Amino acid sequence: MSTPLHGPARAARLTAIGLLVGALAAGFAYTAGWIGPERLTPARIIDTFEAQAGHYPGYRKNHAKGLCVSGYFRSSGLAEPLSRARVFSQPRVPVIGRFAIGGANPLAPDTSVATRSLAVQFASDDGQLWRTGMNTPPVLAVSTPESFYQQVLAMSPDPATGKPDPARLQAFFAEHPESAAFRQWAKDYKATDSFANSSFHGINAFRLVDAGGKGHYVRWRMVPLTPFAPLPAAVSDADFLQHDLQQRLQQGPLQWQLILTLAEAGDPVDDPAQPWPAERREVNAGTLVIEQVETKEQGACRDLNFDPLILPSGIEPSADPILAARSSAYAESFNRRSREAAGLGTRP
Length: 348
Fold this sequence. Notes:
Blueprint: H1 7-25, H2 42-53, E1 66-75, E2 93-101, E3 116-123, E4 129-135, H3 145-154, H4 166-175, H5 180-188, E5 200-201, E6 206-209, E7 215-224, H6 240-251, E8 254-262, E9 282-293, E10 315-317, H7 321-344
């Protein structure tokens, strides 16, 4: 249980958590009927996010600053009994990925945002694709699209400071006790000095379907094989994480293990704010091997929409409403930046 904060310490902590939440925010818009009589569409929520965080034509509307990578996934075969998806049995599956930091500003210093992300596309030899977008937090602060909208409002910058109002954030968290796990994670989180030694979580639950048609609910995460090292207290290079990744890959490939956590009866499979018990069974599905990085957005990932609902046969979405929300928001972001880039005559 965390120690209560008071006065300036509480304000600083709430602001830090709020900024972390805000970096995640644009990825979780919803398609219909949130609050009040007006329909809140993906376009409206992306408009709101850009109004708060800034408008950068041609860029992704969240996790705008990133770089493309490529490599392969080496299956362990241990997940094959859980899912008929070919990715779990094919020995070597080509992947395209993207490392990024949260937020809409493609010029932000790499170390100015706590949230980091890894998006991956697996292309198996049966012609099917699996796309997944993962973030450093293991859970979300909220469970529903309605709560997300309240979160967006709570994150509105104070004109006097340019940052979220700590009192408003405090009120939001007080009204949303489901945020407890996220707040505890944010309190304990220690940033690493590299993308290479960061863990990335899929957050939402999915249903694996085996060859006999039986379903198995799981959450997944990528666990680095590169040892932990803390982020330095002072970093002057605005592209610190990108330059670090490039330098590391010059020395050789980097690896992450894909860990599947299996739900048991009663575990909340439709609530991304609720963690599962630590003793749940885990399966090491294989190893993600990243071999090369390409400069900024000039790579194969540039034109990919890492929609989490692009799934192969053998992996199905749960009924988590935020999965549908993410899919709709990603589509809006992709279509908007594509139109903007076409108008600019270039692709950032």
